[in-house]
Amino acid sequence: MSYIPAVKRTLDIIVALILGMIFLPVWLVVPFLIVMTSPGPIIYRHKRVGRDGKPFSMYKFRSMVIDADDILHNQDKNLLKKFKKMDWKLEAKDDPRITPLGRVLRALTIDEFPQIYNVLVGDMSMVGPRAYLSRELDEQVQKYPGTAKLMKTVLKAKPGITGLWQVSGRNEVTFDKRVGLDAEYVNNLSLWNDLVILCKTPKAMISKW
């Protein structure tokens, strides 16, 4: 890899600190709004697969009801069927678990802001592959067997808050194409590519509105 790890780590820390300061009002206002509009914790913690397949806790502002996982996997079979058919993705308008405030947070990608902490502690990078769920990988690799080899490449890198697939179609990208883009990113790691993806990310975020 032509990208020196220390350079990538330095970029991660600099960008994370700058974003943390720029969006300081968000860190102050959003927790208050979550508490006032929906019962449950402010931060949602989820186990994801990190570099070399090691699990880590990924953080988000909570945008769903507190029993969202139970509703999906145990209570609403039709919702789960649709979720898996869409390659472990649901549009916000089709997901009844999302709170009214959560729809706004997701539309603005504010729900992902706490992942800045994941970057600062070294679990994630600003730019990298998607942070996949363990059971998502198990089921999706079975559905798309051609991705098994690609996943070995993907897991060589830290997951990112943004990445090549996010600026190439976001939720509209199917799992096999998403993994292909993630593997392409890992195989072509460079400071320039990271800077290009970071510059494209705001436009990708706005496209959700």
Task: Record keyword descriptors for this entry.
two-stranded parallel sheet, two-stranded antiparallel sheet, 209 residues, globular, 10 helices, mainly alpha, 4 strands
Describe this structure in words.
By secondary structure, the protein is mostly helical. The chain is built from ten helices and four strands; from the N terminus they run ααββααααβααβαα. It has one domain (5-206). The protein has helices spanning 5-22, 24-37, 68-75, 77-85, 100-107, 115-120, 134-143, 148-154, 175-187, 191-206, and strands at 43-49, 55-61, 125-127, 160-162. Strands 1-2 form a two-stranded antiparallel sheet. It has a two-stranded parallel ribbon with strand order 3-4. Helix 3 (68-75) packs across helix 4 and helix 8 packs across helix 9 (175-187). The mean pLDDT is 89.
Write the layout of secondary structure elements.
Layout: H1 5-22, H2 24-37, E1 43-49, E2 55-61, H3 68-75, H4 77-85, H5 100-107, H6 115-120, E3 125-127, H7 134-143, H8 148-154, E4 160-162, H9 175-187, H10 191-206
Helix pairs in contact: 3-4, 8-9
